[in-house]
Every structure is written in structure tokens, then in C-alpha cells.
Amino acid sequence: MDPVRQKRRKDIGKALAFIQSSLAYPEPEGYQDLLTQLVCNLLDEGNAFFRDREWGRAVKEFSEGLNVSYYAEGEEIQMPEALLESLYVNRAAAYHSMGEYDQGVQDCDSALEVCKKSRRALYRKALCLKELGQYKEAYNCTTKCLLIAPQDKQVNELAQELAVHLGLKIRKPYVKATVSQGIYSYVHKPDLVHNCKGDILLCRLKAAYPSEWTRVRPIPRTSISGPFVICRELLKSGDLGLCKYGENCTFAYNQLEIDVWTEERKGKLDRDLLFETPSKLDPVNAIIRLLQENKGMFMFLCQECYDSKPRIISERCRDKPTVCSNLNARHNFDANKCLAFVVRTHNVNYSKVRPLSVLCHLDLCRQSIRYGCQREDSCYYAHSVIELKTWRVQRATGISPGVIQLSSGGIWNKPRGAAGAARKSLSLKMKFACAQCWRDGQISDPDKALKYCTAKARHVFTKERRVLLARSSERSKWVQIRPLPHAKNFPVYYDICTQILEKRKCTYTGNCTFAHSEEEKEMWMYMKNNDCELLKSLSDGAMLTQPIPEEKPIVMPTDYAEPMTGLHCRLCGKHSNGERQWQQHISSEKHKDRVFSCEGEDEALMWSYRFPGRHFEICSKLGGSCPDGVSCDYAHSPEELQEWTERRDFLRQKLAKAREDMLIMPDEFDFGKYNFLLQD
What we know:
Blueprint: H1 3-19, H2 31-51, H3 55-74, H4 81-98, H5 101-114, H6 119-131, H7 135-148, H8 153-166, E1 201-203, E2 214-216, H9 232-237, H10 255-266, H11 271-274, H12 283-294, E3 297-302, H13 303-306, E4 312-313, H14 333-336, E5 337-344, E6 348-353, E7 361-364, H15 366-370, E8 381-382, H16 385-397, H17 401-412, H18 417-423, E9 428-434, H19 435-439, E10 466-472, E11 479-481, H20 498-503, H21 518-529, H22 539-544, E12 566-569, E13 574-576, H23 579-586, H24 589-596, H25 638-660
Parallel strand pairs: 7-8
Antiparallel strand pairs: 1-2, 3-5, 4-12, 5-6, 9-10, 10-11, 12-13
Helix pairs in contact: 1-2, 2-3, 2-4, 3-4, 4-5, 4-6, 5-6, 6-7, 7-8, 12-16, 12-17
């Protein structure tokens, strides 16, 4: 017998011994609790005997509990109705198991006197009456029970069995028309006048037996680095198709959504272009939208320099506009210019947009996405997502590369005042303050020269030693605004940190991605919606709020300097001003890791097994469970060995492409964990 049950039987013995004596209870107010606990223990003990199929001993315990209840009633102590109901119904179940059906019916009637709508008592009474041959009375009990609980499966089965025995006709129940809460439920309104955007994407499989059209929701905006999976809430609900998050759920509702979202994340599918017709597309607006979505700009570069190995970035020479700015080779710029898309973040990335011809296919080149296309400019498939999108706009509108570059310049070459005008939509006052003074609980503004703070300590006022403060009109308190948390896909909205709400202090050791104030939440939402990923984008506007006297502009010699020309690493997005700096860069460990990385290509999602070991063979100790586990240098299954071979071939092609582009030193043969690529 388990210890819990032993303790319960001991408590029952003590309580029965006490109430059978004439002793006074030490606490008169607690006497009711003693009797109630005793009855509960007797009920639990009877249930334990019932589960052990000891029906007689179960009846004895239930009867003892009822006797204590009668005794309590004589002492003017009322037992809970639910407790009395359980004692009667459970004793009736024990009588039913013993074959004493008359006693079971009597206990069910007693339970119904305590609780008229006792579903358990009605069901147990129906079972006993059925065994006594009183089918009509049993069916009446099931009818009353179904009126209380229409969805009870056991009662429904018993009612149907009794109806068949009585020869009654089984009819269909009337079901009231209701709108389901499932994800695929809808209400058809035939006379509705439609005035929608018509931007619902429907998909189906193109197989031998095509599936039905299924709606595919827009891809979630939250940062999801792994593969998409189906919603667990949806799987648990079965055919009901229920999810408490509805349209805000960031998990897929079906396999079609997983497939479409994966293609959208790779850039192979742009659903916005599916809903646009050529007549609706305005060329300039299409380019502007392209710039806003991809956060970059179009410009012309010298193609001869761009295609050289290693790559050289050179623009049009300012002193002599007919040639490029490369001092070592003055190419004819107009004859060799190419359109390129530039994205400037913490590094600079260039993507060439080749001229669109009638032979071009509006699809991505798989070789270019994985490890570089060998055909290069002679390939008719797009070599980047931005090239594919630009081709689609050109095919739909007929816009020329020159107009594309001019449209891009009109957007990105705005004066600084435009940033300040856009910032006025914020209902916050902003300013920069000294970070060191802010940590000490003081607010110190910069001096007129913006070199030191105005405190007595005269701290150096630089970008690294200043904080952005904001103050709302509702509160007269300055609060710090941290940089916008980096994310591949920004969330729909930001929440306040729960620790700030509960403790007014965040103890997270890392960079908390939740806002620490309402002002910070508002600022982050503004920065997200206006593509201001860094506080640097707001620096000019924030400094304008501080009373700095106007000074005469000073013309520096660098204002008229040539655009930067130098070697450019397409993997890291870094410029090198000379050969020595270039060699240092391509010899760095960080650059070598980027040679083999699949960042931005979603190729990392393909691999299911461990990183390859040194030996491409099946482990000999596998039959007796390898003691090395995941650190073993041998493959642990034929499938893992096959993937290792495919992964080695893939990385070797990336290495060969990097050597061809002169992104690796010719005498470099040390690649750390990737040295297995050099083995035969």
C-alpha cells in the first residue's frame, strides 16, 4: 500500500475514534472541518477499493461516509451537496458492479434528492434500470441526462441502445446554424458589393490529382531563422481547425504555407507582383517601392572594374566625366557602365543588374544562389533577388536603366532638412546627452562645439559616449532610447518588458529586445516604419532640437575629393584602399568563415546531420553504440555519410569560386575546421 493511502487510513481511524468518544473538540469552530475532511477521506478510500475491484469494501467505506454525514447533520453541521452526491453515486456504482441493482436505484434516487440535475446519478440509474429490464424508465433517465449534457458520448450510446431495444425511431438532431471559429470558416454573402484590394493569395498543388485552392497568409514579419512549422494549436484541434491566435499566428496552417513562405524568404516569389497588372504599374513608383523594400539605391559603376578579379568599385570621374575613377585604368565610363544596387548598413554590398533582354528568364539562377554561376553575364537567369525584381519592373513597365538611376537619386539625395521634416510626426522631444553623466543620474548637454559635455568633468562628447533621450508631452521626464534591436524581420509591434512593468528594472544580461518605456516603444515603432534601423538616422533631427547657434559653413578639401575607389570584398562588404590592406583582409579568419558560410542563401536549412568529420567512412563502433557520440569523426549512418559527401562537394565549389575571384590568397591552405575539403 502506498504511503499516501496508509496516512489516509491512519487519519480515518483517529477521526472515527474521536467522534465516537464524548471528548470536546479543542477548537469548536474547526469541528466542521474535521468532519468534512473525514468524509472526504472515506470517499477517497472507497474510490481506491472500487479501483481495486473490491466492491464490498468500497460499499462499506461509502456507507461509513454517509453515516458520518448523518451524524454531522444531527450536530447541525451541513455537509457539501457535491460530497453527498458523490457518496451516493459511487455507492450506486459499486452496487451495480455487485449486481445489486435495486440498491443502486435507491442510491441514485437519494443523489437526485440532493442534486436534481445530477448527470452522474441519472446515468447510473439508467444502467441499473436497464439491468432490471425497465427499459422505458431507463430511456427516460437518459433523456433527462441528455438535456443536461447533450454531448456526453456514454449517455448518447446508452440512449441509442435503449431506443433500438424499444423500437423507437432514431432521428437527426436539429443543429442551429452558427459561424465556426475555425481558420477556414467563412460566411457567404451573395449580394455583397466587393470593394477590396483583391490581394488574397490562393495556391494548390500541380499534381496528378490537383488539390483544392487554399489561402496562403502573408509571411510573418517576425525574425524566424529556422524552417517554418505547422501550428501546434491547429494540430491539437483536429478537424475543428482552431487556433487562438488567428491571423496573428506566426506558424503555418498547412504545408502550402510552408512552401510558399520558404520561397518568399529566399526571394524567389514576390506576391505583390502577382496582384499588379502592367497597366497599374507606374515606373517611377515601382522603383521607389523597390528602394524602400530593399533599403538601398541604384547607381552606375564601371563594369570593367566591377568584373575584374578581385573586384574594384569605381564610379564616374568628377574631373573627367568620360572615364572611370580608377587611377590605374581609365576605362571609358559610358561605354562600360553597368547598373548596380548598393545597400549601405555596417558594410557595403553591391549587386550588379545586367541589361534586360528578350532572352532573359524571370527566375533565379540556382547555381548563382548556391556557389556562383560559371556562365556569369551570359546566363539568362537572374543572379540576385534585386536583379530579378528590377527585371520584373522593367518587363512590366519598360523603364530604362537611366531612368532607374535618376529615380533612385531623387529619393536618396534629399537635403538633410527632409529628415527633420519627417521627424516632426513624432510626438516626442529628443536630445543627445552625455552617457557618463546619465549613468551618474545627471543630464548634461554638449557644448557649442559638440566636443565636450557642459558638466564640470568635461567628458568627451562623441557618438560612442552619448545617449539619445526622449520626453513625451504627457510626462516631464527624460528617458533613454536604445538602438533599434536588429532583426531579419521586424515584429508587427513592440511590447513593454515585463520585468520593467513588474519590478521597474530589467535584469536581462543581454540586449533586451523589449521596450523599457512608452517613449522607447513609440520611437522603435517610428524607426521600424520609416526604415531608420540605427539612431544615426535620427542624429541630425535630434541635434536640431538643441539651441546651437548657426555657424558659417567651412569648405573642406575632402568635399571635392574623388569617390572612393578600391578593392571590394563581395562576401564581407568591405573596401580595401590598397594591396596590403586587401591581403590582410582576405587572410583574416572572419573572412575565411564567410567564404564557406551560407548566410542569406537559406542553404543551412538543407543539412539534417552533423558537421562533417575528418573521415568520410561509416563508424566501426556504431553497432555497439559509439562512445564518442556526436564528437566522433566518422559517420553514424549511410544517410549521414551521403549528406557529408554532398556538403563537401558544395563547399568545394564555394572554395573554387572564391579562388577564381581571388578572394583567397594563392598559397592559403589553412581553413581550420574546413581543412577536410583539401583531402582526397
